[in-house]
UniProtKB/TrEMBL annotation:
SUPFAM superfamilies: Probable bacterial effector-binding domain
Protein name per the record: Uncharacterized protein
UniProt feature, compositional bias: Low complexity: 218-229
Residues spanning the signal sequence: none
Biased composition (Polar residues): 300-314
Length: 321
């Protein structure tokens, strides 16, 4: 009997624990409605004290704790610039801190000095007329995590379906509600100076990387100056050759040829003399064979040339008279 009683008590404790956990989740906003709309945002122009960080968003808790210790009665704010699904965690940019004033109200100078003393910067966001916004209960510390897993998927789908363009997500932590805001106007005005500088550096690095890729992939082009000089040099001798007659090659311009078979220059001279004498003997034989025919021999042909010159001179003299 006692064993059954103990077992029943154990089951009762487990059931009560599960009910308590489930009730706590419901109170934290597990099944709360998420109404996303486009229009005027829940806040006006604000002045904030912030610290700019780069890294995983889950590490922002320490900065929130520090800012709340300086101004415990002020609303906290977080500005998140990158999508952790597409950007590595170590490169995610965010700025967290407190809202010093809203609307026409001016920030307390003493608070400003306190925040600056602990390394916080001061910046102002403008009032916008168009933004995607929603709210989520802020009742327990678990509400922050539930808001991340419940709100952001719905807001992302809402923005993609309507093809809206913005810059960043803002989270304003009020007493009983967390306001989520995605500005659609004055987009660049929500970038703190550190985030702007980082974005410019990334753009410059991407441009340099693109130029490096172009230089590596593009083919090597010839030098324009050297190619133009080569064309001029090739055209210059061609134009000169049209005006001036070709000079006969001289011994200095003729290329020297290596003797074949190891022969010397003296052997070549002797060979040329032998060939010349053989040609003379052949001409003499041909002249002897042609005697008695109509064609005169070579000696008679040479003797006739002076007579032709005298006849030409007499003709020139008659023309002058």
């Amino acid at each position: 009997m006692s064993d059954l009683l103990i077992l029943a008590l154990i089951v009762l404790l487990i059931v009560s624990l599960l009910v308590t956990v489930f009730g706590f989740l419901l109170y934290s906003g597990l099944l709360s409605d998420v109404d996303i709309r486009t229009g005027s945002p829940p806040i006006k122009n604000i002045t904030i004290a912030y610290k700019y960080k780069e890294g995983p968003y889950k590490e922002c808790g320490s900065t929130f704790t520090e800012s709340c210790s300086i101004g415990p009665k002020l609303y906290c704010i977080g500005v998140y610039y990158d999508d952790p699904k597409t950007v590595p965690d170590e490169k995610c940019r965010y700025a967290v801190g407190n809202i010093l004033s809203e609307g026409e109200e001016k920030p307390d100078e003493e608070l400003v000095r306190q925040y600056r003393k602990f390394g916080f910067n001061i910046f102002s966001f403008p009032e916008v007329k168009h933004a995607v916004s929603t709210a989520f209960p802020n009742r327990t510390p678990l509400s922050y995590l539930l808001g991340i897993y419940r709100v952001y998927p719905l807001m992302t789908d809402y923005i993609k379906e309507r093809q809206l363009e913005g810059s960043c997500f803002l989270e304003i932590y009020k007493e009983e509600v967390i306001q989520y805001m995605y500005p659609l106007s004055h987009i660049n005005d929500f970038y703190v100076p550190e985030a702007r500088e980082k974005e410019k550096e990334e753009e410059e690095e991407s441009e340099e990387d693109g130029q490096m890729e172009l230089t590596e992939t593009s083919p090597l082009l010839p030098d324009v100056d050297s190619s133009s000089d080569a064309i001029l040099l090739s055209q210059q001798p061609m134009s000169e050759s049209r005006d001036a007659p070709l000079a006969p090659p001289t011994a200095a311009t003729l290329p020297e040829q290596e003797p074949e078979g190891g022969g010397s220059n003296g052997d070549r001279v002797s060979e040329s003399e032998d060939s010349a004498s053989s040609f003379e003997e052949l001409e003499l034989e041909l002249g002897r064979g042609q005697e008695g025919k109509d064609c005169p021999p070579a000696t008679e042909a040479t003797s006739m040339t002076p007579d032709l010159n005298t006849n030409e001179q007499s003709a020139v003299g008659k023309e002058e008279e």
